[in-house]
Amino acid sequence: MRYRLKPLLSALVLGAVFALAAPAARADDALDRGVGSEWSSLDPHVNFDAAAGWIQMDAYEGLVSFASDGTIIPGAAESWEASEDGRIYTFHLRDGLKWSNGDPLVAQDYVNGALRTLNPATASEKGYYFYSVLQIKGAKELAEGTTADTAGFGITAPDARTVVVEMLEPAPHILDIMGAFAMSPLHSPSFEANGAGVFIDPTKLVSNGAYVIKEIVPQSHVYLEANPNYWDAANVGVKKVKYHVTEDVSTELKRYQAGEIDITYDIPLNQIEALKAEIPAEVHISPSTEVVYYSFNLTDEALSNIDLRRALSLAIDRETLEAKIVKGEAIPVLGYAGGFDPTYPGPVIAEASMTQAEREALAKELYAKAGFGPDNPLKVNIVTTVAEDSTKRAQGVALMWKKVLGVEAVVESQERKAWLDTFYAGTWDVFADNLVGDFAGAETFLAYMRPSAEAGYNWQSDAFEAAMNKAAALPDKPSRNAALAEAERILLDDYIFAPMAILPVRHLVKPNVKGYSDSPAGYNNSQLMSLE
Amino acid sequence: MLRFILRRLWDGGLTLAALVTLTFFVMRAAPGGPFSKTRKLSAEVLANIERSFHLDEPLWQQFARYVWGLLRFDLGPSMRFRDYSVTDILMSGLPYSLTIGFWAVAVAAVVGIALGVAGALRRNGWTDALAGTVGVAGIAVPIFVIGPLAQLVFALKLGWLPVGGWNDGWRSLVLPVLVLALPNIAYISRLTRSAMIETLRENYVRTARAKGIGARAVIWRHAMTGALLPVIAYLGPATAAIITGSILIETIFAVPGIGRHFVDAALARDYPLVMGVTITYGGFLIVFNILTDVLRGWLDPRLRNDR
Predict the structure, then answer these.
(1) Considering only CB atoms, which chain B residues are within 8 Å of A448?
(2) ipTM
(3) Contact status of B193 with chain A (Cβ, < 8 Å)
(4) pLDDT, tens digit (0-9, with 9 covering 90-100), for A410-445
(5) Residues 6+ apart with CB under 8 A from A16
(6) Tell me, which fold does domain B89-268 have in CATH?
(7) In A152-294, which ranges are continuous DSSP H helix?
(8) Domain of A161?
(9) pTM (two decimals)
(10) Best mutation site among B38, B94, B170, B267 for testing chain A: the one with the most A CBs within 10 Å?
(11) Interface contact A143-B83, CB threshold 8 A
């Protein structure tokens, strides 16, 4: 990379002239988007951050793409079909696809991208999309480094315009994964010539998306311009996009108000109400794919009692908690895996038809049944991260448990890394847990609760395993969703955790930005937007 | 003089070595690691990633590897910003931090000394009152209050300057520089004022006056050199701190400097980046302390024979 001494020099010269000229005009023809903290990587096969994912989705195109509302639409592949058993998907690439430098884009480039993601030498955290979220043949062996032989790999390119994906088990959610975030192609010549450094060098970078990266200033911004070689270049609404790093949400809000940013990364919690009153049309708050749930330590003697766990879950007034205490616009839930995919019915939850007063009455009953009461209160700790909303939520729960049941709960706020470590150390009674789904569907959440995915919960249920296995064998979405709902029912009935809320994504969007809409997976490709 | 400087450099090297060792092992003692972000990775894959960063080796071996790299001026790869080496990150961020820091120190020194001298000469006059007010305000009101306030007034209300970022040339510089300078103006003016008042009472100043030297020359040539000593003692380490970036300033004004890494890298357990910023700050601190000593020795002959 080039060291930027120019800003230093120009600042030295200009800084000497301390005179205030006319206000700078900041309205330009670029779409200015906030990305929060700096992207962790612009390497499409390494990046694991959702915010950097926006840049990636603009610069690269997967086999499929996503409409503003999250609907799956054709991307580089114009069509695809699944085999009868749902294990093999065949994607047909558009005719005449090109890389940004004019090279032809071929099916093998997608195979190479997936192989690079899985290659242990890449040290990517995203390989699990291929061996866990989807069980692609041979992916696990490649990711773990037990073999380097790519001959047995399930993603193949029989000809220049066909990509075949062979999985060990059917997975109707495969299309959610075939977007650019997990499935970016690799332009081998430029990568082989320059190594991974090519991804941050705009002079050498070759990409296939609607935009090409023109400028990268670490900690400041990434600037992209429309890619003339993109197959749909004529319909790219905004020709220039600039992603701005702004670590502090209050500063970002001010930059938005000053017209420096068109779409913010977030909204400060304490400003939401005021902004909703002031500029309601610009406040966009919608569910994300991140769920919050409070896990109970099943190895704890007291908490191994299901009545007690249910009592604790029932005693939480989720509506009040989110609306009056946390105030972050999270959506209170009694279920776990629903709310993202409108076609997922979810199980019937008994608590849902009860009033909060009824829940609390039942909670008291169960609490007493478990052998606790005013002279013998339950004592637990709640381990949470130091993030403002998480800590507030934990304090609110502790308060409700105290008020309804007389439980003596202590909130332990820990820095994020320490909090993760605490989970494995097992020194928690109640863990303020969260999970970000890999796609907007129920299965990503339910699969995570299998002991094979996360042993730390110390939960083993043959009924749940059987239900999940049954669902995993079904190739079509409706019957699979019905089977998953059955698995969720078994999971919820065991009260290994108390479902809490679905966290929202919060953006401010300028009224002159058209083509933006809310979606759980949060894909908002710039090419679909326009500036008026 | 040369011997003195060389000796201080040697001491500085030892300090830096101690700093490197301490930081390295204290960082590793913190719970978690750079790649413990979610719990979704399979153990084998996590192990592969850690192996590629040599995190699987025994600690002493990692330390030896790090020191060996350091001797070749290789600060290693960043574990959080995967596209860059630590050297890349420091080299891309330092110019911004240095620019803002340089101007903040310059503004603080000029304004601070002027206010201090004015206050000392006309004690209890209006300049003194002004200097006093600026001093109290600058010290008492923290940057995270003044910063957003300045943004509100100059960027949102008046529209003269951008809120943040680095997209408007020198305009982007004004607010962070002034806000960063403010507390330092306060300290420097207070220091100058009290040192000046004290110096004006010294015998050598009285002698100079008795010899019939003009008031201006007494102040600028004789009193000033004495009065500046404590200011320079303060400015040395303060400059090192200011030019290596302020996390508050850089966060509030979205400046792409290195200041924020002091906290963020530690939170992300980006071991090499933590080491990099620590060494950078330590190096600047040592150099500026030596410069301070040299400058003070030049201004005050009594200090030259201290060692």
Answers:
(1) 40
(2) 0.83
(3) no
(4) 999 998 888 888 898 889 999 999 998 888 889 999
(5) none
(6) MetI-like fold (1.10.3720)
(7) 174-177, 188-194, 249-257, 272-278
(8) 31-251+509-531
(9) 0.87
(10) B170
(11) no
